[in-house]
Amino acid sequence: MTSHSMKKHNANDLFFRSLGVDMNNHQKIEICLGQNCKPYGGQALADALNKKGVPFTTFECRSLCTYAPVVFVKNKAKLKASLDEVL
Ligand code: FES
Q: How does pLDDT run across 7-63, given as a tens digit for each residue?
């Protein structure tokens, strides 16, 4: 890692830490935008993370619809997820 990329890496860490996100912990967020999760909070979570500039990916239904919205954080399911649980 060059000193330039190290400096950029540290700036990103500070940014995400200011949002309450620990990027050193390799936060990986996946939000379900399937037909049930999307209207039951999935889209709202995606919009909130976009507004905060927090990176995430989306997926379509993993058959956990009863627990919408479903989010995976570091590969662990958060059922009926809230923004606090995701960040
Ligand atoms: S729509 Fe999200 S788990 Fe089915």
A: 555 565 666 566 665 554 557 999 999 999 999 999 999 999 999 999 999 999 999
With beta carbons less than 8 A apart as the criterion, state whether 53 and 47 touch.
no
Is the pLDDT at 66 greater than 90, yes or no?
yes
Residue 14's H or E segment, with its range, is: helix 3-18
CATH code for position 50: 3.40.30.10
| Interval between CA 5 and ligand 1 midpoint (Å) | 38
User: Does some domain include residue 14?
Assistant: no
Side-chain-side CA neighbours of 54 within 13 Å: the count stands at 26
Question: pTM of the prediction?
Answer: 0.72
Q: Confirm or reject: Cβ of 77 under 6 Å from ligand 1.
A: no
Range of the domain at 34: 25-86
Nearest-atom number in ligand 1 for the CA of 67 is 3
Q: How far is the CA of 71 from the centre of ligand 1 (A)?
A: 9
Q: Does 72 reside within a domain?
A: yes
